[in-house]
């Protein structure tokens, strides 16, 4: 099997999904109430390529421009308030402007924001991660999950002297050309093999036939951007075994899933990765990424035996890492369990609301993460969804009701949410669903 042999729908625009919807009462109401955002979007299109710097922050007819954020809420430039269920795509696990992080960052920035020497906060954050994740003895920081992918790949290449990778179809490990192919059907990275998620045999076959070329297998313990689809423990264990048999590293991407357990999803499942990628929440709202692993692999950075060069002007900077220490410290197992209960409440409330207006509906759900679908069954991945007409309308209809969710239906809880807020969100979603039902 090779990358070129696999075919799947090529996304048109935006976050990998064509969010263009025809003119309708939902769209008219949206345009009417978000005129300030439209003006900024027109201006953005003059100076920013594609009108933005982040594909998921674009949607049709124009994205909302946010003026401020606090706790569980966003306020747009037209003064409209939204309950935010994206939490910057799962990274703000304590919501916006979390006071303990603000206080820490405020103290830090008065002492300088970055310098080209050691700072204690990055040591504190590294120690905290080593304490939390059994598979990690040492950590190295980057500025994004994408850079963590690149770093993990560099380590794997240095250790194995191989070049290629194996990942899951529909997997996402950041916008690195080697890994984008999982979702975006680029033809050019001849460096990447794709297996089928939750199908151990497909990974075993590729490793059996091409193992000697493969430096590492990258896997998300839960497919995130592909719609919150959990991996079976058995699948992960079999892929790890096959990777080791082939002499490749087994890398778990916990950029999103670290929020699912104090020690990451791997601890919850009792599996240890060779290398673990982290990002999002560990920066407390600031740009971050990290790779961690056991001493024998992370030794590629020992100055006495430097086998991988890694530098970065803002790596491990004191602002990000000070914020990250607070974010990780305050993410306790108790708060993780409470977020899961809120997600369960939200899921049940949304299902009841959909049923009331006869919309097909289902939810993929792991812990504090969920993805909604307007179909009777959860698709293999969000890119395979057949409910695009309903989803795109619901996205805009929800915004009209002051509910901010991802265009692909992702909803992530934060520790500062409570039952009353969830019930308010369900009420708003119910109105949005009834607007959608009227248009379909
Ligand atoms: C599983 C996973 N890995 C890596 C990344 C890339 O992280 P970043 O956007 O910080 O580059 C993401 C981002 O969404 C992700 O979901």
TrEMBL record:
Pfam families, per the entry: Aminotran_3
UniProt keyword Magnesium, yes or no: no
Superkingdom of origin organism: Bacteria
Signal peptide stretch: none
Cofactor section: pyridoxal 5'-phosphate
InterPro entries the record matches: Aminotrans_3, PyrdxlP-dep_Trfase, PyrdxlP-dep_Trfase_major, PyrdxlP-dep_Trfase_small
Keyword DNA-binding: no
Keywords: Pyridoxal phosphate
Record family assignment: Belongs to the class-III pyridoxal-phosphate-dependent aminotransferase family.
Name of the protein this chain belongs to: Glutamate-1-semialdehyde 2,1-aminomutase
Highest classification ranks of the organism: Bacteria, Pseudomonadati, Pseudomonadota, Alphaproteobacteria, Sphingomonadales
